[in-house]
Structures are given as structure tokens and as C-alpha cells.
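To make the argument concrete, we let one protein speak, a sequence paired with a row of C-alpha cells, as a model reads it:
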Amino acid sequence: MEEGLVLVPLIGAAAYKSFRPALYSWPSLPDGTKIEQSSKIPSRYGASELLLGLNIDTKDVDLEEAKKNAVIGRTQQQFLARIGAIEIEDGSKSDGESSSGQRLTTLLPWVDAVARLVLILGLEDESAIARAAESISDASISEHMRVSFKEAGAIKHLVQLINHPSEAVRLAVVRALDRLSISNHVCQTIEAEGVLNPLVNLLKQSNSETSHSLTSMIIDILARILDPSREMASSELTSRQTNAEGILVDSTFLSCLVDILKASNPNLQTKAASILDFIFTNEPCIEKLISSDIQSGLEAVFQQKSLIETEYDTEVNILELEEAGAAVSASSRLLTKLLDHQQFRQTVNSYNFTQLLRAILSSRIPLQFKNWVAACLVKLGSLSNRHLDIEDPINMEVTLYETIPRLIQQIKGSLSPQVQEAAVVELQRIISQGVVDSTRAVASEGGIFVLVEVLGNGSSKAVEASLGVLYNLSMDEENHAAIIAAGAVPVLRKLVNSQKPEWMLALRLLRNLPT
């Protein structure tokens, strides 16, 4: 799309013969919004019956620019279709294909193009509908274009076409809805048009009928609509709970989602786990999930190949770790919620999940994906009647592989002095408890350089806590070189000379270093 132009398929003048405009109806906007009739008193000579728009009070009609463009585009394109001038009849191009069999297209200004594509969606020609849906997908590259298609009434047509008997039409329509649903605003409209039922039914078809690409796009759309982290108003929540009681808790649909957890790529696994999380949060269908073998699905996510391999040097492997980490995080969150139910706890293999999650916790997946892994491990430990003190193996691993790296990240990246101070104090508390390998974990995560920076610009309490951590680190001679390289010596001497309350701690640390 260049300079406001959109590629539109030429489908042949004959295809437009099925166009049936509403010749007698009260005016409405292209998206279906009815314009309120300000006066119901008929005119003396019946003009109000002939010209329905006469009873509209323009002072009360304040249309947004997008709605105005949609009205203009629809009016122009429907007029051309009604007089038979929307495409010129040409024997060599009557079916929208050239003599060589290539599909013909044209460029139209975006206002006309959007209206033309929506008009084609309402025709009977299957090929024309599929090509129009494909063009909508290709043109939906910005928020402006997605909203324009919504205002032009494309959403209602596309949702209705999901059940079309032609596979080509279904594939093109779902692809268009996938691209349009990227916009949160448009996504809400798609949901309001009742897309859940036809999408779920389409996904429930056998794998031989539903292609992998179609499955991926359906899951993409459902994940955007059924996002458990999305804030909802109470009315919207009530509506979604009603939906969950019927469509979403169908056993076949749940089995489809579990199958995706077992056999799909990490990206789809993340979205499937997120959808299951939403469904389970709104309607605890624990019996159906157990019968769908949710346990095997979660185990498959936690046993991904990229989590087991030890070499992660290439950019491709880094990307794989990101995707695997997202899938693990979403699945750990779901497992944590499932463990709240006694019926699930009686069937789950807690030991197996504990071992899998412990291995993941020490893996190289990004830190932001380890928080739910750690939370799930703690939950599993508490359910096994173990006393999770600081010396418990699970608690120690959570501390080493999630808590300490997270605290160092907060100290390094936080713009809030209060958050930084709290993180340093918590880190000092952990180190002072003598957790095995805790000082090594701080050093390996780059904590020495971060803590030395705190000495120069942190609050009094943060400096004191940082000195305590560095002192414990200095007890291991292997850390001396790193502490000195971080520039600690001049900063410590400055603190000693300043005679601030922390000068004695600074002096003790300075004496421990080979200076």
C-alpha cells in the first residue's frame, strides 16, 4: 500500500449482479449502527417515507472521521454497483483473470478500496469473496486500516463467512480476522459479533480438515480475545463467563487445546495454555480437563528439546529459548491454578512435575519467565507436606535461580531509589542467612559491578546493605579481582574518608581486598 492506495481484486462485472442493496430501510452506518430517528411525524406529502434521511437531525449526528469515510465509500461503491459501472464488462476479463490465467487487480484510494472489498464480501461468488478477504488481510497493516475496515462493516461479513462451505473462503476469512484482531479495539468488535462459536467449531474439526496454518490463526484470534491478563469491566466479565459455560468448556474443544500443548511449537503452546488459563479461571471445569489428559500436555511443554540442550550460542537458539520460556511460564501459571483443586492434586504426579520444573529453573530461559516456575515449585513443595525453610532444596534453587537474579535485575534497572533499596536489603538478608552458593550466584549474575555502583549513588540504607553483601563476597578470594575491577577501591576509600555511618563497614571490606 503506497500513498493511500490499496490493491483490490478485479472480479468481473458479472459477479456484481448478485449485489442486492437495501432499497427501503432506515439509514444506518456501514458497521450496522442505527441512526436515531429524531422525528416520527410523517411529512404532509409523504416525502419522509420516500426519503428516509429527511428525519435525521444533523445537529445530533456527530460522526467521527472514520465513520464519515465509511459512509462516503459505501455510498459511492454501491451506486457504481447499482448502475453497473463498478467494473466495465470485457470479454477477456469477465471473470477477473487475464488470458494467461493471472488474477487481475487494480489500485484504488483507500476509502473506495475499503468499501469495495466489504461490498464484495456480500456477493455470492466464492472466488471473489476469498480474494476480497485476502486483500483485507494484506491491507490490514496499520491501526488506521484495521479501524477503517471495522467502520466499513467488514467484521460482521467475515464472522458470518467462517462457516462458508468453501475451504478457500474459510482460510482467507480467518486470515483476515487474524490480522484485524491485532487491534484491541477491533478485537472487541470481533468478539461482540459472536466469533467464538464458529471459531471453536472450526477448530474442533478433525486435523485432516483443518490445516496447520488455519489452526494457528484460530488460536491467535482466541488468545487475543481470551487473554487472562486483560483487564475487563464487570459487564464484560459476566458476558465472558456466560460464554465459558457453553462454548468454551466443550470437552472436544478442551482436548484440541491439550493436543496443541502436546505436539505444537512453543508459540502455539503459549497461546493454548493462556486460553486454558482463561477458561479455567472463569469456569473451573476440572473434571473435563483431567479427562482431556491435561497432565500429559503440561509435561510435554516442560520437556521441550530447547530446554534440555546445553548449547545456546546462535541467535536461533536464543529465540527458541525465548519462545520456550514463554510457553513454560504460561503452563506453570496454569498448573499453579490447577493445584488449588483437590481433585487435580489426587491425580497429578507431583514428583515428576517437581523434577521437571527444577531443571527448568536452572536452565537458561530468560529470567522474566521463571517467576511462575518458582511459584509453581513452591506450591508443589507446600502440597507435599514439606517444611520449606531456607535449607530445603526447592527453596534453595528458587533463591539461586530466580530470586537472586531478579533482585540484581531490580537493583540494576530500577529508576526508583525505593525499589533499588528494597532489593539490596533483601539480597543482603538472603546472603546473611548463608544460603549455599548464594554468593556465587550473585557473582555469576554480574551482581558485583551492580553493587559497587550502589556504593556511589545509593541511599544510606542501600549502601550499608551493599557493603554487607560485598563483604561476604570478598571472603572468597576468587571474587577479589572482580570487586577491584568494578572500581570498588576508590569508592571505599572515599566512604572511609567521609566518616559517614557506613565508614567502618567500608574499612572492613577494604582490608579484605589485596590493595
Summary: The chain has 28 helices and two strands. The mean pLDDT is 83. The longest strand covers residues 5-9. Strands lie at 5-9, 105-109.
